[in-house]
Amino acid sequence: MSFLRYKTHIEEGELVIAYLMPSHNGRGFMYLLHPTPELWTHVVPHRTQILYAADISYITTYLDLKPGSVVLESGTGSGSFSHSLARTIAPNGHLYTFEFHEERAKAVKQDFEEHGLSDLITIECRDVCKNGFGVTDLVHAVFLDLPAPWEAIPAAKEAFKQKRIGKISCFSPCIEQVQRTCASLNENGFVEIKMYECLMREHEIKTIPIYTVTDAVNKIKLQQDKKRKRKEDRDEQDNANADSQVSKSKQDPPNLYVSKTPNEVKGHTSYLTFATFLPVLEEQFLTK
């Protein structure tokens, strides 16, 4: 089954993602899931560290990617982000991705072929920091996941379409990398240089009753009545039945939706540095 088009029926020889749910009796269930970039991120063989949903969604949005976009990626790694990029720019966009390690490049190329993404993705084994990207005036956006992204920024500048605005993003675990990257972006004429950090925080949604002041006063009176009845040596079972009848006769208070966040949040993944490439001005405007 294709990562790009949904199908309702599975045919022989097609790729699916199997989710196993074992049970205590040794049987359990198996669910056959349609492959998506999100599911692939969870099951991809980790040849390198990968990007996850929080960073992927933020980068894709900030780079303004859409169907038809031409994107340049360096640091293919395990191909997690490449799958999401391919789905975003389909059906008539293209991704040029580069990987320094030859064995990783071969492995991820095989993944692209098996997943039906070869028409959208061109992968090449290349050291872009030393040899550049080999393309000029071509792409709308650039993503760099490299140990030294500042070394590839001059080549990335040449790869942008020279007559339109482009966006670049750099994925760096250390703040020292961010500092050098920002300096290189500034030296090469990029503007709107910004850095972000994405942390995923889950919200647990639940309902709670809303009590008024009158409800609180009545609750206190009810507790006092219970104490008084116990002092009068009334039967405890009769008290419980009476209390139950009183509570049932009252109207339930309205509910309010609230959210609760965990005390601890998943830790730092990486810093995301963004910048904007401005188009080259025509000579006639420069002379004026």
List the defining traits of the structure above:
288 residues; alpha/beta; Rossmann fold; 7-stranded mixed β-sheet; two-stranded antiparallel ribbon; extended
Please render the helix and strand layout as text.
Blueprint: E1 17-21, E2 29-33, H1 37-43, H2 53-62, E3 70-74, H3 80-89, E4 94-99, H4 102-114, E5 121-125, H5 128-131, E6 141-144, H6 153-159, E7 166-172, H7 175-187, E8 191-196, E9 204-209, H8 213-231, H9 236-249, E10 255-260, E11 271-277, H10 283-287
Parallel strand pairs: 3-4, 3-6, 4-5, 6-7
Antiparallel strand pairs: 1-2, 7-11, 8-11, 9-10
How are helices and strands ordered from N to C?
A: EEHHEHEHEHEHEHEEHHEEH
Q: Which segments are poorly predicted (pLDDT under 50) over 5 or more consecutive residues?
A: 245-249
Total DSSP helices: 10
How does the major sheet shape up? Answer: 7 strands, mixed
The CATH superfamily title of the largest domain: Vaccinia Virus protein VP39
Give me the oligomer status. single chain
Strands of the biggest beta sheet: in what spatial order?
5-4-3-6-7-11-8
Q: What's the alpha carbon Rg, rounded to whole Å?
A: 29 Å
Instruction: Measure the end-to-end span.
Output: 57 Å
Shape: extended
Our estimate of the beta-strand percent is 15-25%
On the 0-100 scale, what is the average pLDDT?
Answer: 87
- What is the CATH domain class of the largest domain? Alpha Beta
Number of strands: 11
Name the helicity range.
25-40%
Would you give the CATH topology of the largest domain? Rossmann fold
Name of the CATH architecture of the largest domain: 3-Layer(aba) Sandwich
